[in-house]
Design brief:
- By secondary structure, the chain is of the alpha/beta class.
- It contains eleven helices and twelve strands.
- It has a single domain (3-36, 90-120, 137-330), classed as P-loop containing nucleotide triphosphate hydrolases (Rossmann fold), CATH 3.40.50.300.
- It has helices at residues 3-7, 10-15, 52-64, 104-111, 161-172, 179-192, 213-225, 243-260, 273-276, 299-305, 317-330; strands at 19-20, 27-28, 35-47, 77-88, 93-98, 121-131, 136-138, 146-149, 231-235, 263-267, 281-286, 289-295.
- It starts with a helix and ends with a helix.
- The structure holds adenosine-5'-diphosphate and magnesium ion.
- Adenosine-5'-diphosphate (ADP) is lined by residues 46, 80, 98, 100-106, 119-121.
């Protein structure tokens, strides 16, 4: 099991043990703070220089003065994300859609503060996280309980689903948490993510068949729920799954957002129409520009009002909008 998948982000999660009730006996992953995000003029660029030796000092300078850089007009920086502003409400599920290379992962990583050590990227603008319960805003995500599900499943093939989660619980939860509490928490998470039928199935690998692809993905999400995040980021969690398993995974995530008050943000490649409908908010990217960043309910009327009505019958709005948003630029 990779340390990245299991413990990330280690410091923050260890400092924030799972909620305990007053006598400290019962832990539950159901109680979290509601967090919304506000993004203002976020712009990301990549330094063009090819030589690592010249890139690092330039980057150091940029990171220190990141709010002062004009990324768009700087000749030495290629703009990866053009200035964008949007809000993500609490207890909602948001997708970032767009073609390959449109900037989905870059945007997700920026929202998740997965910064750019030794990379050539630089950023300006502002991302703030608002906690509803205590009515305070933070610019540092480390002050908010959060987790990130990477695109690959990195799991130990010789452990069962239950053992994998217990192992993660022992690593992530505070020492004072009893074995019984961990077991109860793990069983809650197993139920929530629909892993009950494969609770005692080995993860397996290519030599020994174990969990299916969909179950492995859900287990990867479950691992990140151990730390009870308020905000959960996922990079293309449905890629590689068949459409039914992709739907089941998104349905589980929607339930987490709605029932447990989590803010879920994911990048997704070509969602099926029934998956697309599960999202509360949609961010559509085209070549680094934000074409739409608002609620799903206003999406179709917005595109209709600017002259791109989605065909009514049998049309997948996601496919239609992906083609539409790239259309005008393709002729350049
Ligand atoms: N560190 C980097 N240096 C230079 N270019 C980058 C870097 N990271 C991303 N890019 C460029 O930004 C664009 C968007 O990348 P990415 O966010 O990975 O797209 P997506 O996830 O939508 O496929 C691509 O053209 C990619 O080449
Ligand atoms: Mg990507």
């Amino acid at each position: 099991m990779s340390s990245q998948s299991m413990t990330e982000p280690a410091t923050e999660q260890r400092n924030n043990s799972i909620s305990q009730n007053e006598n400290g006996k019962h832990i539950s992953f159901t109680k979290t703070k509601s967090v919304s995000l506000k993004v203002k003029n976020l712009t990301i660029g990549a330094v063009k220089s090819q030589k690592q030796t010249t890139r690092i000092p330039i980057l150091g300078k940029f990171i220190q003065k990141k709010d002062g850089i004009d990324i768009e007009s700087n000749d030495r920086i290629k703009t990866v994300l053009y200035p964008m502003s949007f809000n993500i409400p609490a207890n909602s599920m948001t997708c970032i859609v767009g073609g390959s290379g449109s900037g989905k992962t870059t945007l997700l990583n920026s929202l998740a503060h997965r910064h750019f050590a030794k990379s050539s990227l630089c950023q300006s603008g502002e991302i703030s996280y608002h906690v509803a319960d205590d009515d305070s805003s933070y610019h540092n995500l480390q002050q908010i309980r959060h987790a990130y599900v990477i695109q690959q499943d990195i799991l130990i093939p010789t452990l069962t689903c239950f053992e994998t989660l217990m192992f993660a619980a022992e690593l992530k939860l505070t020492k004072s948490t009893t074995h019984e509490s961990m077991r109860r928490l793990v069983d809650e998470i197993i139920l929530e993510l629909g892993l009950k039928d494969c609770r005692d199935t080995l993860v397996g690998d290519k030599h020994n068949k174990g969990l299916s692809g969909g179950e492995k993905r859900r287990l990867s999400v479950a691992l990140q729920l151990i730390s009870n995040p308020s905000v959960l980021f996922l990079d293309e969690p449905t890629t590689g799954l068949d459409s039914y398993n992709a739907y089941l995974l998104c349905l589980s995530l929607q339930k987490l957002a709605k029932n447990l008050g989590k803010t879920i943000i994911m990048s997704i490649h070509q969602p099926r129409a029934d998956i697309f409908k599960l999202f509360d908010n949609v961010l559509i990217l085209s070549k680094g520009r934000l074409c739409y960043g608002d609620s799903y309910s206003k999406l179709l009327s917005h595109f209709e009002s600017i002259g791109y009505p989605v065909p009514e019958l049998n049309a997948n709005p996601a496919d239609f909008l992906m083609e539409t948003k790239d259309g005008p630029d393709e002729s350049n």
